[in-house]
Amino acid sequence: MNDYLNKILQAKVYEVAKKTPLEKANNLCKTLNNDIYLKREDLQDVFSFKVRGAFNKMSKLTKTQLVNGVITSSAGNHAQGVALSALKLNCEATILMPITTPLVKVNAVKNLKAKVILYGDNYDEAYQEAIRLSDERNLSFIHPFDDPEVIAGQATIAVELEQQLKNPPHAIYVAVGGGGLISGISLYIKNIWPNVKIIGVEPEDADAMSRSLKESKIVELSTVGQFADGVAVKKIGKNTFEIAKKYIDKMITVNTDEICAAIKDVFEDTRSILEPAGALSIAGMKKDIFESNFVNKKLIAIACGANMNFERLRFVAERAELGECKEVMLAVEIPEEAGSLIDFCILLNDRNLTEFSYRMSNSTNAQIFVGVQVYGTVDKQILLNEFKNSRYSYIDISDDELSKNHLRHMVGGRLPKNTNELNKLNFAELLYRFEFPERPGALMDFLKNMKSNWTISVFHYRNYGADVGKIVIGVLIDKNEIKDWDKFIKLLGYKYWDETYNETYKLFLGAID
Length: 513
Fold this sequence. Notes:
Elements: H1 2-9, E1 22-24, H2 26-32, E2 35-40, H3 50-58, H4 63-68, E3 70-73, H5 77-88, E4 93-97, H6 103-111, E5 115-118, H7 123-137, E6 140-141, H8 148-154, H9 156-164, E7 171-175, H10 180-192, E8 197-203, H11 208-215, H12 238-247, E9 250-254, H13 256-270, H14 280-292, E10 298-303, H15 313-323, E11 327-335, H16 340-348, E12 353-358, E13 365-373, H17 377-388, E14 393-396, H18 401-405, H19 419-424, E15 427-437, H20 442-448, E16 455-462, E17 468-478, H21 482-492, E18 495-498, H22 503-508
Parallel strand pairs: 2-10, 3-4, 3-6, 4-5, 7-8, 7-10, 8-9
Antiparallel strand pairs: 1-2, 11-13, 11-14, 12-13, 15-17, 15-18, 16-17
Helix pairs in contact: 1-8, 3-5, 3-8, 5-6, 8-10, 9-10, 10-12, 13-14, 13-15
């Protein structure tokens, strides 16, 4: 502990980093009935806290090491920190970045005169290649999180918090990827204010720290979600794990919709747009307030990054309403008869519609997709109770990924009637959802490896401006070849979900008897 404290107090960061403000989030304060402050690390020159740890580590290198050059792996923010530090120290920097890295981050690193090598579909593949090149070319590897000097550099945020706060807060919320940021902050804060709660926040699909602390050992995830690419790490560090075991009070996981809602919250308070990883702490703080019933507590959230890919904003805007429970999505079945649509609209009363899809069919019932504005969980439940007491069959699909990403844009289409004849000939329709790295050729690799006799019956793809592409595909296939299909999708190596028995798929897209 003393060794780390000495490193923190001797850390050199302000040649490239700036002391960032601690700002009160007035809108969030009113909405959540607590005193909420944002530590604005998104205001660094590289729009992320990462420059602190990178420069502190590199400033400790020998002249010989600086002359030889440095190398690192990063999804973006650490890369910019290393590149800016190298520019300041007159040192050559090589940065390994995943092929899926948003272009805004790649260009930012190149603009800082660093050499960029795009390698692998995720951070861990880029990391392994960076380690190999480090040994091969005698370059100093600058670890993104698992290095005492990097941890000490990030901890200077906590030193600033001590100076900016008159009294200790109730809790500090910190985004967690590999654990460097929360390790540095917790080391210092727990030494000066031992009663302050240190709470880590991770995405539900990238929860390496949560699982590791729960199992009391470092757990390596088989896959990680890429939406919050800044924390998309399969395995936390050894140093960060040892610190986390001692000083983290609680871990919280949040979903994509909750992250999007937090991005919107910060925008409404500051008119700044955080990246998904940068808004993690705010999303976790909101969740903790609701679950713990906090009132009038002083709470700090580290707004740790703002390297947002602009094209991703449409996805964020679309999902933010769901994340803050201001929208409910429903699949509703109504009689296909004159006046039924009007009767349905009467049930909605004066509520605002956010989406409404309907198509006349030749069956006795029509299926509609509807998005309705609500005002929190209580109001949502009131609406659902109204539907329960109505004559309409419905499904709440607000948490269904297939519906939110694909079916909402595909409502109205069904298999032709003559498809039933195929069923008699031993054919079946399978429906699968896939995520694949958004890189040139990935989609074609998928299609060209399919058997020519597999008929595509459903196909939907939408570019969300993210580093992961999403498709849903239906295939008509001889039932005797289902094992071949299973083998095909496993060999692809993409994340996939079998949606063949999804209720909303049957309702909107299934064959009409």
